[in-house]
Structure formats: structure tokens, C-alpha cells
Amino acid sequence: MTSKVSRAALIASLVVGASGLVAVPAEAANGVSTANYYVNNPSIGSAVNITPESAVVSGAIDTGGSPESVLPVPGAGLLWNATSSLTITGEQWNDGTAVAVANSSAKAYAPIDGIPVSGSNSNVSVTITDNAITNGGITDPGIGSALSGKPQPVSNGGADNYSDVTFEYDPVSDYDASVNQPGALVQQAQAIQVPTTTGLSSVSTTLGAFGQAAQTNTGNAPMTPGTKYYYWILQEPGATDQASNINVSAWVGNTSGTPAVAAQTNPKCYPNAAIAADPTLNGYTLPGATVTYGGQTLPADQGPCIYYYGNTGGAFYYQSPNGTFTTPKLGTVKIAKKATVTGSKVTLGVTDSSTYKASGTIDLTVRGKLAGTAKFTLKPHAKGTAKVTLKAKGKTALQKGETVKVAPVSQTANVTSVSEWDQPLVGRSVKL
User: Fold this and answer.
1) Under the phi-then-psi rule, with left for phi > 0, alpha for psi from -120 to 50, and beta for the rest, what region is 143?
2) 3-state secondary structure the chain
3) What is the value of pTM for the model shown?
4) Is the dihedral of CA 308, 310, 314, 317 positive or negative?
5) Tens digit of pLDDT for each residue in 177-206?
6) Do residues 252 and 31 touch, judged by C-beta distance below 8 A?
7) Is it the case that residue 173 has pLDDT exceeding 80?
8) What is the pLDDT of residues 224-248, one digit of tens each?
């Protein structure tokens, strides 16, 4: 897969990246934060089109775009998703929609849904702390006590919002049920971006890939035939890539020297809609805006980033319950031990002993050198023949009545046979 990391590594990477890639809590100095907008937990659907090496799986997610509801939250928090240890804590927010009790420092409530629908101008709650600073030549007028540090509604500004969705899967034999965690063999499908919208959104993907062509086209590794699997959904809601990494060193007063310059690079990822609501921050995004650091003049806007409106209490994802399915056994392709020879013509007997079609190329070798090739195509549980095209070494071997070897299906051997549907070839040698 175009692989994302496993759930444990996902949490670790997001924690490491919190200063530049994800939303962070309000800082003691100047800063921007948004309320954690919670969503309902994802559900897992059935697995269909199951082959020995693949399956199509589905589920349903709440992307958070439904009208906002207000959930009472006890002081100790409310466990929302036991699998990912996601606990809802109280919020103070003001997006122009919530009832007045939401905008209270008591933080006894939390929003469920209410993330702006992708492309809309709906409001989201943003808290901008911007105090006036005069520091060795750096002057920031601030936004005044009526707004600074207070939640305020800010338009989404038509930004695209979405949920990151990933299906993971792991053999049941590898899964540690005692702690409900996958083992070393866990795999992930390619991530899906689902636009934020109202109601539930259906999601589906193909796990693994059956056959050489599918594996090449998708980049997916095949699943193991005859194996029982668990699968589940990981969801990160409220993402927007219309956000910018701003070097806020001067803005937060992290400066030194006269005249003052940034004491260190201090990039923060903020949504563009929130940046536009603060004159000083917005000034950092103007063409030519710079911050001086370590004797270098650097762009104040350090490029795009991804901001999440739903980074909930340190748990950065929601997880569905596990589904399960079993891949069927694949079977084999058997090659007859003795070839049929009529004059200079040679054919091989080939039997597909699986419930799936089979095709490919059989390479024959003499002392490691290519002696001949034979292409085959068979229906399930069918017998047939494959005409051998002999090379010079194969013709000599035929004249002598020698036994030739069947080249293995291998990624590393110099001479290899090909099984396009991954059935193992049974039969190591053929008497000519």
C-alpha cells in the first residue's frame, strides 16, 4: 500500500508533529486554537468479493458535517471510543450556532458534529490570543481584550474539509486479543479522503490484490490464502489542507537582541480562515513577509500544512469495531512429470487444481540455463496442455532424452516461471 503507519506509530508521529502539522491547544502567549469537534464513531461493514489474496471491505463514517449538537460532559470526561482510548472533555466554543452554555469557562459541554461542510462558508469556533507586544522594535497592536483569548465564530471561507480514512487488517493469528492490538503483520490500505458532509458517508476499499496484474496496477501486496483476518477503520476527521505553517517567533515574543529578531524558528500550523481573522498573522502571509533567525531572513509563511478540527484530547483517530473474513485456499497448478514428444514437438500436461482460473509461463532449464518456455491458460479444475518452445539447450536435451527442471516462481532467481494468478507450480522436473 501507499502505506501509512500503524495506529501506535500514527499517534507518535502526530504528537511529534503537533507544532507544525496538526492543531494544538491555545498557547500561554499568542496563539490560535479551535474547539475539538467530535464525531460519531465509525462502523464496519461486510467483506465481499473475497478471493485468496484480496477482499472488498466497507464501512460508514460521520465526517462531522451534520448540524451541531451539544453533549453534556462530566468533569472527569466521557469515554467516547474505548478502542482508541478517546475521551471527550468539555470545551468552550462559540461558532454562532451553539447555545449560550457552550461559551462558558466551566467547559461542561462538547460539540458533536458542526465541522463546516467542505467548500462552505459555515462558521467554526476559533480562539485567537493576540496581546499587544512592543519588544525591541517589534510592535503588534493585538486584537483587544474583547476578542483576544475569547472563542469567536470565523467563516470556513469555502475551504475544503475532509476525513482521513484508513482500513487496517491483520491475520487473527497475529492479533493480540488480550490488549486488542494488531501484531507485526498488520497492513493498511491506501488512505481515503472523504469530504466533510452531512449524514453518514459510505467508504470502501480493496484489501490486498489477487493476481500479478492487480498487484502491479495497485501496488497492493497479496493477502495470504486460507487465512482468517480482522479488519477495521481508522478515521481522522476535520482535516483541511487550506492551512499554513507560520513562523510565529516574533508574534509570540520569542525574540532576542536589539533590534529584536526571532530567537528560534517556531512554525505553527493554523487554518487560513483563522489567519485571515488576525491582522498581524495575516500580515505574515503577504508576499515578501519575513522573519530573521540566526542571521538568516526566512519567509514568515513556510508553506501549506494540514490542520485538524477534531484532534480530540490527545487521541488523534476514531476506530471502528473489528470485522472478520477468511480468504479461501488458492490451490496449485500441477505439471506432468513426463512431456509428450511427437518428433520435434513437445507439450506439457498441466492441471489447474484450484477453484480459480490459472495462467502463466513455465520456464524449463538445463543446468540453470533456459531450455524452453510454455504458456498455459486453464479454467478452474481443468486439465490442458502447453506447447514448449525449445531453445538450443532444450533441443540438445530432447535429443538425449534428458530431464529438465521447472524454474521456480521467484523474484530473485535468474530464470523464473510466472504464475499470473499466484498458484504455486507443483512439479520440479520433466522427462523429455
Assistant:
1) alpha
2) CCCCCCHHHHHHHHHHHHHCCCCCCCCCCCEEEECCCECCCCEEEEEECCCCCEEEEEEEEECCCCCCEEEECCCCCEEEECCCCEEECCECCCCCCCCHHHCCCCCCEEEECCCCCCCCCCEEEEEEECCCEEECCEEECCCCCCCCCCEEEEECCCCCEEEEEEEEEEECCCCECCCCECCCCCEECCCEEEECCCCEEEEEEEEECCCHHHHHHHCCCCCCCCCEEEEEEEEEEEEEEEEEEEECCCCCCCEECCCCEECCCCEEEEEHHHHHCCHHHHHHCCCCCEEEECCEEEECEEEEEEEECCCECCECCEECCCEEEECCCCCCEEECCECEEECCEEEEEEEECCCCCEEEEEEEEECCEEEEEEEEEECCCCEEEEEEEECHHHHHHHHHCCEEEECCCCCCCCCCCEECCCCCEECCEEEC
3) 0.85
4) negative
5) 998 899 999 999 999 999 999 999 999 999
6) yes
7) yes
8) 999 999 999 999 999 998 999 988 8
Q: Which of 196, 171, 185, 223 is nearest to 55 (CA)?
A: 223
The model's pLDDT over 314-338, given as tens digits with 9 standing for 90+, comes to: 557 899 999 999 999 999 999 999 9
Domains of the chain (ranges plus CATH)?
7-326 (no CATH), 333-431 (2.60.40)
Whether 97 and 65 have beta carbons less than 8 Å apart is answered as: no
